[in-house]
Amino acid sequence: MKSKLAITSLLTAITASLCCITPVLALIAGTSGVASTFSWIEPFRPYLIGLTIVVLLFAWYQKLKPEKEIDCECETDEKPKFIQSKTFLGIVTIFAIVMLAFPYYSSIFYPNSEKQIIVVDKTNIKTIEYKISGMTCASCETHVNHEVNKLNGIVNSKTSYENGNAIIEFDETKTNELEIEKAIKTTGYKITDKK
């Protein structure tokens, strides 16, 4: 039972962060279009985090509570299996914490896509704001910025999952709105409006 609790907490922790893990995995796999696949999980994230914590606490309670002594003269010096040990539960607990915190450090997995921009004529610089749906965490922001910054002529790209937008400054002589929209769409997120 105790090992089942540990595995359950592990699964709920992974599920809670799946919406933020997917963009990083998509980048690594080179299939950035699947990045938004699990964004529907985001509204359930607080409940999954709570469930993970409750299951882990109960597993630790079960592991640390004193055993009832049985009046038996049988020898029970049998060492528990690794999956039933405190060490295993500790490893699961640490892994669950790492998974739950993933949205806060996921940006380290993206390569630095900033580049030196030389602007010849400032009249060619244009700023556009795209409203984007499906972003749920900082990992989503980084994913959109990474794809947009691959284009030539991008001066600045600021994406916000909280505001559901991306404000992009670009040189019209080197790229255009259509190319920027294509780059955003490759992430799997949807552009709902532009200004």
- How many separate helices? 7
Strand order of the largest sheet: 2-3-1-4
Q: Please report the total strand number as a whole number.
A: 4
Largest sheet: 4 strands, antiparallel
Low-confidence stretches: none
Q: How confident is the prediction overall: mean pLDDT?
A: 78
Taking all Cα atoms into account, the compactness measure Rg is: 24 Å
The rough form would be described as elongated
Helix content: 40-55%
Roughly what fraction of the amino acids lie in strands? 5-15%
Helices and strands: which structural class? Answer: alpha+beta
- What is the number of independent domains? 2
Give the distance, in angstroms, between the N- and C-terminal Cα atoms.
56 Å
Q: Order of helices and strands, N to C?
A: HHHHHEHEEHE
Descriptive report:
With 195 residues, this protein is of the alpha+beta class. It folds into two domains: 2-66 and 81-108, no CATH class; 110-194, 2-Layer Sandwich (Alpha-Beta Plaits), CATH 3.30.70. Helices cover 44% and strands 14% of the residues. It has seven helices and four strands, in the order αααααβαββαβ. It has helices at 2-16, 18-29, 45-64, 86-100, 102-105, 138-148, 177-185; strands at 125-133, 154-160, 165-171, 190-194. Strands 2-3-1-4 form a four-stranded antiparallel sheet. Helix 3 (45-64) runs antiparallel to helix 4. The chain starts with a helix and ends with a strand.
